[in-house]
Amino acid sequence: MSSDGRLRAALYARVSTDEQAAEGYSLTAQLEKLRAYCDINDYEVVGEYVDDGYTGRNTNRPEYKRLFDPENRKTWDVLVVLKMDRIHRNSRNFMDMMDDISRHHQQFVSTYDNIDTSTAVGRFIMDMIQRLAQLESEQTGERTSFGMHQKAAEGSGMLGFNAPFGYEFSEGGLVPVEEESETVREIFSMYLSGMTMDDIAFRLNSARTLTRRGNAWNKFNLRTVLHNPTYAGYLHWEDLIWKGDFEAIVDIETFDAVQEMMAARIRNPKQRHCISLSSLESPNSVHAES
């Protein structure tokens, strides 16, 4: 407690999408309501922790981690959030947090849910609400995945992914980026010449030809490029693949040849699976990868 006997409050606010902000969950709105709650209940606000653009399904959030840092948590007695789903959308993570708060003899308040963790009823209600929040989150994820798969099965264009290295989005479609697309062609050419991915990475990095984010090339991001049928003009989602309506960076023969070389270098024959675009019966229909 503070020197005057008041509970010291840590405020936590989170928003993950613009849609949430439009629905009244903006960070500014959250903090204003939390400060008002603390003022009414005579809590002393000792810290505000704000995660902007982070999902509540996991704990990989910078301000969330700072909130529970051993030094910071010594400064507060009660954690105050607007709604329970602002702090967690995963029941297991939430229960772990509550166990941790209990071990440190701290309290938790969710203002909209009117939850008081100092009572057994409050703890029970809180657990039920959190499980419903997790159910809603998982159902949303299932609906999104089903919708994406259905769209892919119909071969109906872009699926909301980020443009891969070598491309950019323009007017709803993929358009080659000249300098990057030339690097992509060089990567395919070097691999076909017999160079290993380590050799290719060394040559690119030595020439200061880096990834879009300025990172060095390595066998992992090179493998991603070499395996991506987008460069041959095809789109894919999970096990489905279909011809896209955009300019290819490499031809189908080059792409297939690289897939065959990569598969041949796998020691275990049972694991030698590769995409063969030229073997597709009809380039304009959707195919399931074998």
What can you see in these coordinates?
By secondary structure, this protein is of the alpha/beta class. It has 2 domains: 8-138, 3-Layer(aba) Sandwich (Rossmann fold), CATH 3.40.50; 156-288, Putative Large Serine Recombinase, Chain B, Domain 2 (Hect, E3 ligase catalytic domain fold, Alpha-Beta Complex). Helices cover 45% and strands 16% of the residues. Helix 8 crosses helix 11 (252-264). It starts with 7 loop residues before the first strand and ends with a strand. The relative contact order is 0.08.
H and E string: EHHEHHEHHEEHEEHHHEEHE
Number of domains: 2
Q: What is the level-2 CATH architecture name of the largest domain?
A: Alpha-Beta Complex
Number of helices: 11
Structural class, by secondary structure, is: alpha/beta
Q: What's the alpha carbon Rg, rounded to whole Å? A: 26 Å
